[in-house]
Amino acid sequence: MKGRIPHHAVATLAGVALILGAYSGAAHADILFASTATNNSVADFGILNTATGVYTPLGDNGVTLAGLGALNGLLYGAAYNTSSGTLFTVNTANGSLTVVGNSNVAYLDFAVAAGGLWAVGTDDNLYSINASTGAATLVGPTNLAASTANFNSLASGLGFLFYDLMDGLFTLNPNTGASSFVGCGGALVFQVCSGPQMSAMAASSGIVYGVDSVVEHLHTINTSTGQATFTVTVTGNGNFISGLSVAPASVSAVPEPGSLSLLGVGAAFLLATRRRMR
Asked: Do 232 and 199 touch, CB atoms closer than 8 A?
């Protein structure tokens, strides 16, 4: 017959379970800020629930952004395919934009990654962007052929530069701009990638998300292979999603030292209690 655990041990076990539950990797919905192409019927800035795919509008700034990204407590966005190449900070409450500065480079894609601001221009060159002035510095050619006629995107929130073009995932060298092929998001058909085309990508909680705006599908992306896995259909956005980002203040859910101490105390108490019961 198994011994009965004392009430105080049960209470300690419950406390430990609560702490573990708070810091476990249980499935949850990541909420990402999202920008869309301008649309008269739906506000072009909002949040995207990655579990349900529902886009909830927060405000309308009237500008199509080439992407979004968070750095040093601020949310940034850059104008899509305009000669001014304007960099903005974005008000996370309503989407209103504040001009940081202009680069005079037309951007196809924008992201915050590898500790900085980056963009791919309509000339298929990679640029680094000064977060204080908006000035763009030419890094070099990607040797890819992106255009406004297809969906393409830089991923925000990663330690490396990942670029999706026509269902192919590439890394971009931050020193030269050169691209390296990672893999296809879908299948390789006659030496050409065929599958989802990401108009926006961002990482959150260790997961890379991408929106295939051809069919409004949300995917998770394996950055080792390029493979995209469908998760849910995106609804409520009115027009294609052009940018995704975590909140500027987002941090990883890592237990604080005090919480780790509590876990140790609880585990030791349970072990001592069990030994006394033998």
From this structure: no
3-class DSSP assignment, residue 250? coil
Query: Residue 90 above 90 pLDDT?
Result: yes
Q: If we measure between CA atoms, which residue out of 100, 143, 97 comes closest to residue 120?
A: 143
pLDDT (mean) for 29-33: 93
Helix (H, G, I), strand (E, B) or coil at 254: coil
Structure tokens at 199: 């108009």
Query: How far is the CA of 108 from the CAs of 81, 145, 148, 161, 250, in angstroms?
Result: 6, 11, 7, 15, 26
Place of tokens 């296809």: 184
Contacts of 65 (CB under 8 A, 6+ apart): 35, 77, 78, 79, 80, 88, 90, 110, 242, 243
Predicted TM-score (pTM) of the model is 0.80
Delineate the domains of the chain, giving CATH numbers in brackets: 28-250 (2.120.10.80)
pLDDT of residue 192: 82
Distance separating alpha carbons of residues 219 and 203, to the nearest angstrom: 12
- CA distances to 6, 49, 51, 53, 75 from 112, rounded to whole Å, are 53, 20, 23, 23, 9
Phi-psi region of 259 (alpha: psi -120 to 50; beta: other; left: phi over 0): alpha
| Cα–Cα distance for residue pair 131/87, rounded to 1 Å | 8
Distances from the Cα of 245 to the Cα of 113, 157, 168, 209, 250, angstroms: 11, 7, 21, 10, 10
Q: How many CB atoms lie within 10 A of CB 39?
A: 15
Closest CA to 151 of 160, 163, 141, 139: 163
Longest dimension (CA), the chain: 79
Tokens matching residue 35: 């920008």
DSSP state of 235: B
